[in-house]
Fold this sequence. Notes:
Blueprint: H1 6-20, H2 29-37, E1 42-45, H3 54-62, E2 66-70, H4 74-86, E3 91-94, H5 101-109, E4 115-118, H6 120-123, H7 126-132, E5 137-142, H8 157-160, H9 162-168, E6 174-178, H10 183-193, E7 200-202, E8 210-216, H11 220-230, E9 235-238, H12 242-256, E10 260-263, H13 269-281, E11 286-289, E12 304-307, H14 314-321, E13 331-337, H15 339-348, H16 354-372, H17 377-384, H18 397-400, E14 406-407, H19 409-421, H20 428-436, H21 441-445, H22 465-475, E15 478-480, E16 486-488, H23 492-496, E17 503-504
Parallel strand pairs: 1-6, 1-7, 2-4, 2-5, 3-4, 5-6, 8-13, 9-11, 9-12, 10-11, 12-13
Antiparallel strand pairs: 14-17, 15-16
Helix pairs in contact: 1-3, 2-3, 11-12, 16-17, 16-22, 19-20
The protein binds adenosine-5'-diphosphate and zinc ion.
Amino acid sequence: PSLSSPADLAQARSELRRIFGFDSFRGVQEDVLARVLAGQSTLAVMPTGAGKSLTYQLPATMLEGTCVVISPLIALMHDQLRSARANGIAAATLTSVDSDWRETQDAFRRGELDLLYVAPERASQAGFRDMLSSARVGLIAVDEAHCVSEWGHDFRPDYRQLRGLLDALPHVPRLALTATADAHTRADILSQLGIPADGLVLAGFDRPNICYTITQRDNLARQITDLMASEPGPGIVYAPTRAKVEKLSEQLADATGRPVLPYHAGLDAQVRRDNQAAFVASEDMVIVATVAFGMGIDKPDVRFVAHAGIPKSIEGYYQETGRAGRDGDPARAVMLWGAGDFATARQRLSDVEQHRLAGERARLDALAGLVETPTCRRAVLLRHFGENPPVSCGNCDNCLAPPKVTDVTELARKLLSAAYRTGQSFGLGHLANVLTGSADDRVRQKGHDKLSVFGIVEGDQAALLRPLARAMQARGALVSNAHGGLELGGDARAILTGEQNVEIVLPPKKQGRGRRNGGV
Ligand code: ADP
Ligand code: ZN
């Protein structure tokens, strides 16, 4: 495949106007289209709302043959179908709720379809593969492509079967799309779907108008009441359970006199619809909700998103806070966390299937790194999404009021040395055992009790290893590999040679039984 010619892009631009009525491409859309039109397989990582659908809908109208789109959510597929048809694109779906299969198959065979949406479980069946070989396919788009990766937050076994279909059509370019993929997941998607590493197109994830604040909970209702006092516009408060949603919405309504409504899956469907509609129409309402709220809601003037507990992951946090300030005006994201949140989340890890454990643990560690960092929140977020941001943004709590930090460079060097000398393939548990001189079976069996780093960390310092390791991961100096082993990366070398310092915010001292005072 060669580069797409300028003529292709000029034609794409005129089709953009003619079919969609848009004047110009947004962000990386043009880069993605250039590759797709040139027949090059691509992984596009673009945040929600960046306009992923256009990157296959437009080629679908230009390329010879049908564009097959694999998409995991039937409801979303039917939304897409409606909007594609409204734009005059010949589109159809093949799902368990469709009854017009025969017509769809005939239309495909006659080459009349621009777009064919299909669910992953259907796409991997032999019958579907046979059907595809009966007419020309111009492009295979895999939506929500992170579902193919066990590292992703939403692994679906059906996605694993797609490779057979893709390989049966070796000359058809592939376009994988996702809004959320950290470095591991991205690499995994590329290899699972057979897309070359240089086929990655990454959109900018920065939302400069959102000011991030992450702070400990002490009095939740009062903290959110204060936030509401400073932000009179619409807001969303995410709470972890239905009971907390109910309680908090009453407390906030009482304390502020502002319109406050609850939203969670336990409410009657009609009540949910009414509350959502009221929120969308309002200029000062606050909705207290579980994460069930927000998908597909179009409200550009949300002024704040608060989390009354930790989100599930950095991906989730980015997506939920991303609902603030879509109009580009200043907006706030405030997370109120408690150490108990992390304790609960870590307990839940014991229920996770073995093959997903490393991924889940890495996700939680990444989140803890964001919560604990004394450095720029935005920088940690953007690095997580593979960007290379400036060290400071001037629009987050840590940039606006730098926290009191302690220099732990010496301890950081010891940790890096231990990771290095044990072959960069062990997790923190093992490294901590080596460093603190606890010669358990594994340490002895590997001969790590003979290393110079054995037992060089003592007393108080041992308790700092875990927060330090997370800080090192947050800045990229330690990177956890696919098996949970910690490898050196980023500025690890500069830390070892003394060119870079490492500072962390000291965790609060444990006081007797107080779980709130525990570590993250
Ligand atoms: P995503 O799937 O990435 O979340 P969508 O494909 O749903 O995003 O697009 C989000 C919105 O942006 C849609 O309303 C779409 O019509 C609009 N959009 C996409 N591309 C453009 C463009 N080039 N110019 C203007 N609006 C666009
Ligand atoms: Zn910042």
